[in-house]
Amino acid sequence: MARQRVPVVLVAGFLGAGKTTMLNHLLANRQGARVGVVVNDFGQVNIDALAVAGQVDTMVSLGNGCLCCAVDASGLDAMLGKLSRPEAGIDVIVVEASGIAEPRDLLRLMIASENPDIRYGGLVEVVDAVEFEATRERHPELAEHLRVADLVVLNKVDRADADAVAKVRGVVEEYAPGVPMVLTERGRVDPALFFDPRPRDSYGQLSFDDLREHDHSEHLHARYESVAFTSDQPLSPRRFMAFLESRPAGLYRVKGQVDLGAEGGRSRFGLHTVGAFVQVERSSWPGGGRRTELVLIGAGIDSARVERELRACVDKDAGADERGLLRFLRYLDEPDEESSRHAEDG
Ligand SMILES: Nc1nc2c(ncn2[C@@H]2O[C@H](COP(=O)(O)OP(=O)(O)OP(=O)(O)O)[C@@H](O)[C@H]2O)c(=O)[nH]1
């Protein structure tokens, strides 16, 4: 089995948009997952939630100043390296950019990172629905931030009326066509958008986490859809690649394993996509046999259509399409093969 890489989620957004509020919500609702946090200033982060997870010693403060200025590639890499060590047992790392950090630079650092223990977990841009117009005027670079985002969290919708929210949505969609968007109050996104909860049995003994009061505001969670797809027959590499390359707008994450009918030992393809980013890892099938299992998560996606499109990829003769498979291998993330890439680059 391939080593589990720790996803690194980048959270960006202008001053006061609600990044820290969202981070605290994630910490309070992390369902057993261990969260590593990198922020400039811990002042408002719910340290209790981290303390409960026993992660205090692995927290890394950047001190004063903007994250992008404070770290060069090796600086952030070193920090991520510390947090992603298998011994740290962390399931997800959230990097909160300061109000003035350039998300594009962070994204570059992430994509260029050679740390084998991490993978890109998405760039989330938190947008203040009330202040959107004012922020846009003051910071025209907001357009660029939205363009590179994998997910837009349109926050503070409780403070804007429906017309105003619709208007902001329209502008965001213009700047970031096809980028999934969730509407939130107090940053209450569903943590499953970012990371997977830990299976109960991996907790071991009853932890503080089990005793803690959880945030039961389920109904306030931003809505998203999740589609599970399985197939005992292999998928045609060509058709599956076409599906990946024209993923429906709104599809934020795809994760799982794919059987493309390939022969040989390491023919299980583990797949992670977030936004436009695609990462494929190769490993052996476990004893139980081969089977495609995918979970697709998005906001405003047509689940029936996604399932139909995937079903149409099923091809019992998939293994015969060696050329198609070779093309798919471009996505492979291995040191001696062409590494994973951002779809924009290709
Ligand atoms: N009404 C309302 N207030 C919110 C919401 N989200 C956050 N706030 C408030 O907005 C203020 C700013 O939120 P923060 O989470 O600190 O924002 P931030 O993006 O981390 O801010 P910086 O770190 O300064 O960039 C706080 O007073 C929050 O309580 C929301 O959805 N609705």
UniProtKB/TrEMBL annotation:
Hydrolase as UniProt keyword: yes
InterPro entries from the UniProt entry: CobW-likC_sf (IPR036627), CobW-like_C (IPR011629), CobW/HypB/UreG_nucleotide-bd (IPR003495), P-loop_NTPase (IPR027417), Zinc-reg_GTPase_activator (IPR051316)
Domain CobW C-terminal: 224-314
Membrane spanning residue stretches: none
Keywords, alphabetical: Chaperone, Hydrolase, Nucleotide-binding
SUPFAM superfamilies associated with the record: Hypothetical protein YjiA, C-terminal domain, P-loop containing nucleoside triphosphate hydrolases
Keyword set includes Glycosyltransferase: no
Family annotation (Pfam families): cobW, CobW_C
Catalytic reactions on record: GTP + H2O = GDP + phosphate + H(+)
Signal sequence range: none
UniProt record similarity statement: Belongs to the SIMIBI class G3E GTPase family. ZNG1 subfamily.
Name under which the protein is recorded: CobW family GTP-binding protein
